[in-house]
């Protein structure tokens, strides 16, 4: 994963080089990427990591620098926490994970973006291919919370209209007061990349929603993301309704 030592943002600093260039119009990034989430052959496909999957989706992690996007992805993918000094992501990078959702193998191609302002144009180029967006803020950092509206505006400008959005208040410590919200009309949960709280759930909920949208099985009850999240979420409950 492309990461570099954190630098204090100087506002007008020149753009650093990116690990992966932005995609060209209609291009597919990676050997096993799919733009519409469906694998059309009817047979399972093999991902780069050697795992079979039935359907594939792109999920993007976005939010201010330092809110914990990379740590959340590492927690989900490897079950570990990246402790130590903060290494800010440069550009954009992705990792795949295949989940079993009700007997269907769903591959999530998870794009970890750089939160720093100077990489914003790189991130914009990826929005249009995303099927879902996990928008993070840091519950201990009010500025990152205040910036949520700006992120949502950006998402609505660059992403597909039907993109699945979920808001995550990361770095939850159950003993500390948190900035939390469900006022944005998108599903919300508290997470901790450090102790793993709700991390698996956040990605599973997204995978379930995308799978249900893609494979509409007759007689299967409609999946409601909001309800699922409300039912399954763990935590202090300050943001549960
Ligand atoms: N206490 C606590 N610290 C966390 C948690 N998640 C991330 N951190 C810390 O927050 C800092 C930033 O985490 P990153 O995952 O690198 O942040 P990022 O959002 O990827 O930042 P950019 O790559 O710059 O956009 C690191 O020092 C992490 O150790 C968490 O859940 N709890
Ligand atoms: Mg990062």
From TrEMBL:
Keywords: GTP-binding, Hydrolase, Lipoprotein, Magnesium, Metal-binding, Nucleotide-binding, Prenylation, Protein transport, Transport
EC numbers, comma separated: 3.6.5.2
Biased composition (Polar residues): 28-41
Pfam (any one): Ras
Molecular functions per Gene Ontology: G protein activity; GTP binding; metal ion binding
Catalyzed reactions per annotation: GTP + H2O = GDP + phosphate + H(+)
SUPFAM superfamilies: P-loop containing nucleoside triphosphate hydrolases
Required cofactor names: Mg(2+)
Region feature Disordered, mapped onto this chain: 1-41
Gene Ontology biological process terms, A to Z: protein transport
InterPro entries: P-loop_NTPase (IPR027417), Small_GTP-bd (IPR005225), Small_GTPase (IPR001806)
Matching NCBIfam families: small_GTP (TIGR00231)
PANTHER family noted in UniProt: PTHR47978
Family named by the database record: Belongs to the small GTPase superfamily. Rab family.
Name of the protein this chain belongs to: small monomeric GTPase
């Amino acid at each position: 994963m492309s990461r570099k030592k954190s630098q204090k943002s100087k506002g007008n600093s020149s753009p650093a080089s990116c690990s992966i260039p932005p995609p060209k119009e209609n291009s597919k990034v990676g050997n096993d990427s799919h733009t519409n989430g469906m694998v059309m052959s009817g047979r399972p496909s093999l991902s780069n990591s050697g795992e079979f999957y039935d359907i594939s989706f792109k999920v993007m992690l976005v939010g201010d620098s330092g809110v914990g996007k990379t740590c959340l992805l590492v927690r989900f993918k490897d079950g570990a926490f990246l402790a130590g000094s903060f290494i800010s992501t440069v550009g954009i990078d992705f990792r795949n994970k295949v989940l079993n959702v009700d007997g269907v193998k769903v591959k999530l191609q998870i794009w970890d973006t750089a939160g720093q302002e100077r990489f914003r144009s790189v991130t914009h180029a990826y929005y249009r291919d995303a099927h879902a967006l996990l928008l993070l803020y840091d519950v201990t950092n009010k500025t990152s919370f205040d910036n949520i509206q700006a992120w949502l505006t950006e998402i609505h400008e660059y992403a597909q209209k039907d993109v699945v959005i979920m808001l995550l208040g990361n770095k939850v410590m159950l003993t500390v007061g948190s900035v939390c919200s469900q006022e944005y009309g998108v599903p919300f949960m508290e997470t901790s990349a450090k102790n793993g709280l709700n991390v698996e759930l956040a990605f599973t909920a997204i995978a379930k929603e995308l799978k249900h949208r893609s494979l509409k099985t007759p007689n299967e009850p409609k999946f409601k993301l909001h309800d699922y999240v409300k039912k399954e979420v763990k935590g202090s409950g300050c943001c549960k309704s």
